């Protein structure tokens, strides 16, 4: 299949004079970062070190994303799907200070390109700036911005990109948002990736957590954690039933008699355990019946449900600027919140209609499902038999050593 023509081809060549020693050092550095050439490595360094857009760029955002690029695609009782660029919606269509909650999962800054159009990790903050400006414009002072964002790996080495942390710092320091609290989404069903460093070289563990940044325009957005209580543990139920003697704990916490009070449930931690395993719902059936591509990066409905219940009231306006298959919209519709989902891909929107037609897809009701995390080092191993990789995984295992690793992996999985 021929390579598609670029809209911005690289037709200019620049020569850099280097000594043989300098060239060798550049090639080593490029190879260590997963690049095949010095030019790719230099381009990587250039974009990584660009910390801010050219002066005056922000003033051009409204002109660059006109309202005419967005049109209505579908309307439900409480909300609507818009087809187009959400930057145009946030900068030119939505009323200022009109939105109570923006909850979304933007394309992640990945090294490998995915079918749903992710962005380059090194350029991510520059790409996100017009969105950030629009979000700040339309969000109420009492509203919240919730961003689910996964991490990425540095090309060719077992180290992590900092792009999602840089995004957080940019939103706070450059756009004036406040970090209310970070949350983490643990997906128990996630496969052990990246395979190269987890399964083959065995120098990293499974990457199963997404960061969720909860931000706001002021330090005091509206919220109430009594909306999202979880069931008490068996030990807490026993304590409530049999009583608890008030005393000072070794940690220094003074546990009073109020600890015996039944508040209807316990306050959840900021670790959200939700398996992303839905594969046979009405959305998938609609897509298969209509021969429509299924969105490959959907987040589970329990994530937007958690934040919508926690941070909004019925009738409030919820916006998802990266609507995808409109998971946020169908949750908001069920919870009687006004909502807007904006998405650029018509294919994904054709599939999203299956969440509303012929009938509204109900919320999942397996919310009482819980997941167990084994205690660290709970599997007994012989350290004399299991040696450390002294090179840190720099070299791939030989075929013989890989067979030993695979055998050990099968034993552990069993």
Automatic annotation (TrEMBL):
Record field: compositional bias (Basic and acidic residues): 384-394
* Keywords recorded for this protein, A-Z: DNA-binding, Methyltransferase, Restriction system, S-adenosyl-L-methionine, Transferase
Q: Name one GO molecular function term.
A: site-specific DNA-methyltransferase (adenine-specific) activity
| Domain annotation DNA methylase N-4/N-6: ranges | 99-350
Q: EC number(s)?
A: 2.1.1.-
Q: Which GO terms describe its biological process?
A: DNA restriction-modification system; methylation
Residue ranges annotated as coiled coil are none
| Reactions this protein catalyses | a 2'-deoxycytidine in DNA + S-adenosyl-L-methionine = an N(4)-methyl-2'-deoxycytidine in DNA + S-adenosyl-L-homocysteine + H(+); a 2'-deoxyadenosine in DNA + S-adenosyl-L-methionine = an N(6)-methyl-2'-deoxyadenosine in DNA + S-adenosyl-L-homocysteine + H(+)
Broad class of enzyme this protein falls into: transferase
Q: Taxonomic classification, please?
A: Bacteria, Pseudomonadati, Pseudomonadota, Alphaproteobacteria, Rhodobacterales
Q: What is this protein called?
A: Methyltransferase
Q: Which family does it belong to?
A: Belongs to the N(4)/N(6)-methyltransferase family. N(4) subfamily.
> What are the start and end residues of every segment in region (Disordered)?
384-414
